[in-house]
């Protein structure tokens, strides 16, 4: 190390060039690094959707969900299997071990699906496998409004033009189409007339479908040319439908006769049933949700989306209006800019503190230069490691600003003390000797500060991903600051050397400190008691703070959820969404209101959520920037209550069944969602089937009757119970009845035609007399038509809205508030019943042992570092006595700044381990130096402490004032609690160390002298 110090001292130009190169590399890296609000958090998850139209939830569970779950149970790497069965669909979600590649997992899932698919019921669609995270929010939302009279134009434009162009933008993962109208041709069959002619609804639909499609008919050869033969039956216009002739035979004995479609049906162009609805500021529109691809730069993506919207508006200005409703980039840039401002204020505070104490412009400049140097080194490491510039990595750089100048201050204080009053410029060799004299203590203090963050990088699972960036940038900054101070400052100090006599202010501070230290040295036991009592009070303050895992960032939206009775159609909910969003948009403090209900076929991840309901309307309310989110939340909550109470009768008179269930809430923080946290405690009741689950719910009736159950609610259902004897007599199967009923009510897409270049589906459905199901006729194999009422009985009943399963067992989840007294009862039941257990295992709970081990490992590494430096087993324990002193400051700071005990605070505790011992190392190093010069232990410690007072004060104050902007930053998140813990702990440990450690060191040196 000595040779390297001398090397740089003799080559100051090389030092300047190296620093310039690092600054240039950091500037280039900063300009190209992708920005993100959080580190890349990708949950290894695969969702499987299986559709079987017309099947009730109970049948879906038994015939589809359970067989597929059994096949998926052997997939390697899966930890949990969640499923939800609804009418016509089964959605299964597999959660894999952390670190599993979702694409690789999807391949294994598809192999298992291929094996089980042949055994599934006939007619079922092949399961769709989708890798990805179901909790991802759209990055941007684009509104498409039609300026023409055709309301379906906006959806066609968005689907066939805009959607494809958006997908080509670099960084776009997927684009979901929501809301809008879709036109379809409806061929309504005259069911009674067809029955009189001896034709059943399935027979007619089958004939119509076969006659209106293009069917490949093989190949023919003409000489050396091979021609493809196609039997073309596709319709070319709407008029062709009613004039279409179909062959039919009433029975096998009769001849086939032609039948005009128009004679037995009625064709009209109508609006198709909606699967989703999107509203904006009181109007129903079409929207496109744009999802960001993993690893894409959000700033560049936002810019490209805005450019796309401008181009689309220029291209379609005569027929549509395209606008951007939501853009996640501005909030991201605001939070990043806020952290950069915090870092800037922190750096300015450090420079001011340095100048107030040092009072030398050159010395202050050299010390302050460590801040941009370490910041630049951190940016370069982020770029080299392939990470993003996010709130965690920037937070680490901001937190490190106050730490990187510590060694620089000590080095400059040493050089000024020995060379500040010389008449001649000192020799390079002399400067190198002085710089080398503190190399041991400087590297030791640097390692003890940085080593506490190294284990955090290797935390398991999502903890390492979330907090690894903070640790990497902090460690890089600290070591970069040490490298600059140890090797570059001596060279720059000699290069800019100019004699300026020392000022007297520093002696005044030392004199005052000596007067305060004397009574402590005379009566140390009293001060030991005071320090111990203060530490105990601090520990008590810490324990009374609420415990969470992350502190949520400020929200920019307010959510309103309104539930409607089961079975409410999407169009009715959309009508209420128009009225409700229009009312909210008229409030003077509201900027934009948009909302949605339902889900499209492609939104598999959304429907896989057990809480998803087609009958739920979610409204997003964006307040104006001049009002605080808390105030806007209160105003919206009161206005929503007033609106629903005053408008209930008016809304219900419009045949919209308004439910009284509604809630106003702030969106959960993304980190909380990712880490599996919730404001509720969730328990599970499992069983082999729904009957057993209900019986077990009865066993805990007091708990289950008052808490929220998931899935919850029933939906109305008409169930046909066939008369088996009658069916056997007429030769009719239950499948024949189901097929006829489906055609009579839902209909099927049997053909399509082109209208103005766009394909339009033709839905064939029956039209029963008086719309009564009992009047529908079923054709027997013998040619006789039988009324449905003669084949069975119809019963109206309530059935489960959805059925959930967890790890191949039926389950009902029970949600309790964390402060609910029922949580104690639930904990007691958890210890009694094996089928009742808590399911919301947060990352904090799962990895809390890892966090404890991390703290212990940090202490062990710190002890080993100091033990190796001082060749002592006892001395590290003596110096580490300063750590408990920090407790009083940590507890007081968390209470003062209203911070919880979360993961950031825990990392702050770890940081204090290293910071608190630094002052002890400084005091020990100077005391040992003076003892080596011939001083007695008491005199050495007493004078040495006064000599090192200024460096300790400077390093403490620079760190403290650098942390303040991070604490006061509204986008601080976990960095706020971490900075608060470091802020209070450093002040307390530095203050108590200056008075408690000197008498302890005197006893230690005296004991060692007598050995």
The level-1 CATH class of the largest domain = Mainly Alpha
What Rg, in angstroms, do the CA atoms define?
37 Å
The total domain count is 7
CATH superfamily of the largest domain: Multidrug efflux transporter AcrB transmembrane domain
The stretches of 5 or more residues where confidence is low (pLDDT under 50) are 501-506, 549-553
Proportion in helices: 40-55%
CATH names the topology of the largest domain as Multidrug efflux transporter AcrB transmembrane fold
Shape: elongated
Count of helical regions: 38
What is the correct CATH architecture of the largest domain? Up-down Bundle
Strand content: 15-25%
The span between the termini is 33 Å
Q: Oligomeric form of this entry?
A: single chain
Structural class: alpha+beta
How many β-strand stretches? 30
Average pLDDT taken over every residue = 82
Give a quick account of the main beta sheet: strands, pairing sense, barrel closure. 9 strands, antiparallel
